[in-house]
């Protein structure tokens, strides 16, 4: 039983916040052209140091060697990769499927939003009334959704055996989110240019999640 | 404790069988069901890629506030979807029995074209016996 990650989307479909805990398969940092807003999460923000000519071929890019199996993205604010680059050059041809099976963060966040939005519309259509989509589960994870009246969507990925964690998402909204984002005069809500990441919000969300009995 | 509906989706995402039981959920037009089945097919494929821990199956259970959809994906890519109330404990075993009925009454039927809509009285009666007439 554990909690994997938290995404927050605003009403313009943009991911404004991301945090993860126990992911064994972390996201690759977002691509430069992926359209990820600044201040979403330091771990997944595209790295500016990277020369642009290398982004032409995705598989030989040094960025791809930075995915770690430990769930920690090693490419945080680092000029040079800490892990030595693999020697073999034929990786680009022999392992494209292995590498491309790990999504970059911008692709992943768009897929998450797409799934949430489609399921939400499907549940509304099937129920015939304004019923909300609550969660779905697969063999390895469960996704929970809480949508506020203002259109913010809180999405959480947890262990498949977890109970409904909607109340936790609601607590994040009514606690840290209101306190450190909505009531923060330095925060430009709905800007379409900035995420909502700030130290207080990240810290108190982290504390709240780590305090849950399901978090181990 | 109620079963609202049963869908069978072929491996290309087309709805080949759809039946409602009772009035728990509103009845939509067949066109709307086709669209929803296609959407579900796409979502199912995406959900298996979003796993935070290695490879995953697609969505197995999708919950709303008053109903849930239980999805059985067979080895051949056919999906069986059961729409039930939230407190339905044996949706999985019902789906397994539906799969058996499908294998017996549809796949062994020499007049059935694979991947095409199921028009088999035998399957209908087996489903009625299994779930009820609705």
Automatic annotation (TrEMBL), chain A:
UniProt KW Cell wall biogenesis/degradation keyword: no
Annotated InterPro entries = Longin-like_dom_sf, TRAPPC
* UniProt keyword annotations, A-Z: Endoplasmic reticulum, ER-Golgi transport, Golgi apparatus, Transport
Entry's Gene Ontology BP terms: endoplasmic reticulum to Golgi vesicle-mediated transport
Report the subcellular localization.
Endoplasmic reticulum; Golgi apparatus, cis-Golgi network
Query: CDD domains from the xrefs?
Result: TRAPPC1_MUM2
The record's Gene Ontology cellular component field reads: endoplasmic reticulum; Golgi apparatus; TRAPP complex
Q: Relate the assembly described in the record.
A: Part of the multisubunit transport protein particle (TRAPP) complex.
Name the protein family: Belongs to the TRAPP small subunits family. BET5 subfamily.
Protein name as catalogued: Trafficking protein particle complex subunit
Species assigned in the record:
Ceriporiopsis subvermispora (strain B)
Lineage in the entry?
Eukaryota, Fungi, Dikarya, Basidiomycota, Agaricomycotina
From TrEMBL, chain B:
Q: Supply the InterPro entries for this chain.
A: Longin-like_dom_sf, TRAPPC
SUPFAM superfamilies linked: SNARE-like
Which superkingdom does the taxonomy of this entry point to? Eukaryota
Where is this protein primarily located? endoplasmic reticulum
- Pfam families for this protein: Sybindin
Q: Which Gene3D superfamilies does the record cross-reference, listed alphabetically?
A: 3.30.450.70
A Gene Ontology annotation in the biological process aspect, one of them, is:
endoplasmic reticulum to Golgi vesicle-mediated transport
Q: Where in the cell is it found?
A: Endoplasmic reticulum; Golgi apparatus, cis-Golgi network; Golgi apparatus
UniProt xrefs under CDD domains? TRAPPC4_synbindin
What range does the record give for the signal peptide?
none
Might you report a single GO cellular component term?
Answer: TRAPP complex
Keyword field: Endoplasmic reticulum, ER-Golgi transport, Golgi apparatus, Transport
Quaternary structure note = Part of the multisubunit transport protein particle (TRAPP) complex.
Q: Which family does it belong to?
A: Belongs to the TRAPP small subunits family. TRAPPC4 subfamily.
PANTHER family of this UniProt entry?
TRAFFICKING PROTEIN PARTICLE COMPLEX SUBUNIT, TRAFFICKING PROTEIN PARTICLE COMPLEX SUBUNIT 4
Q: What is this protein called?
A: Trafficking protein particle complex subunit
Q: Which organism is it from?
A: Ceriporiopsis subvermispora (strain B)
């Amino acid at each position: 039983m554990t909690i994997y990650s938290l995404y927050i989307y605003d009403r313009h479909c943009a991911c404004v916040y991301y945090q993860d805990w126990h992911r064994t398969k972390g996201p690759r940092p977002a691509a430069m052209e992926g359209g990820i807003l600044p201040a979403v999460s330091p771990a997944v923000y595209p790295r500016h140091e990277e020369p642009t000519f290398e982004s032409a071929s995705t598989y030989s890019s040094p960025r791809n060697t930075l995915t770690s199996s430990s769930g920690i993205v090693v490419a945080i604010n680092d000029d040079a990769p800490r892990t030595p680059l693999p020697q073999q050059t034929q990786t680009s041809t022999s392992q494209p499927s292995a590498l491309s099976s790990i999504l970059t963060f911008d692709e992943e966040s768009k897929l998450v939003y797409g799934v949430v939005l489609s399921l939400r519309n499907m549940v509304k259509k099937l129920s015939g009334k304004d019923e909300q989509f609550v969660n779905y589960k697969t063999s390895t994870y469960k996704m929970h959704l809480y949508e506020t009246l203002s259109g913010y969507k809180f999405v959480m990925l947890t262990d498949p055996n977890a109970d409904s964690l909607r109340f936790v998402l609601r607590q994040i909204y009514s606690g840290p989110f209101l306190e450190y984002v909505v009531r923060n005069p330095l925060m430009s809500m709905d800007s379409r240019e900035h995420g909502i990441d700030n130290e207080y919000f990240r810290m108190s969300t982290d504390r709240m999640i780590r305090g849950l009995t399901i978090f181990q | 404790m109620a079963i609202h509906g049963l869908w069978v989706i072929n491996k290309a995402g087309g709805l080949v069988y759809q039946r409602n039981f009772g009035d728990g959920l509103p009845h939509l037009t067949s066109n709307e069901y086709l669209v929803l089945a296609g959407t579900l097919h796409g979502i199912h494929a995406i959900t298996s890629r979003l796993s935070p821990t290695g490879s995953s199956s697609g969505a197995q259970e999708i919950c709303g506030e008053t109903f849930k959809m239980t999805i059985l994906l067979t080895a051949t890519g056919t999906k069986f979807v059961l729409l039930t109330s939230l407190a339905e404990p044996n949706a999985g075993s019902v789906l397994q029995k539906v799969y058996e009925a499908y294998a017996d009454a549809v796949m062994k039927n020499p007049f059935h074209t694979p991947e095409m809509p199921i028009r088999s009285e035998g399957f209908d009666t087996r489903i009625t016996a299994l779930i009820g007439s609705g």
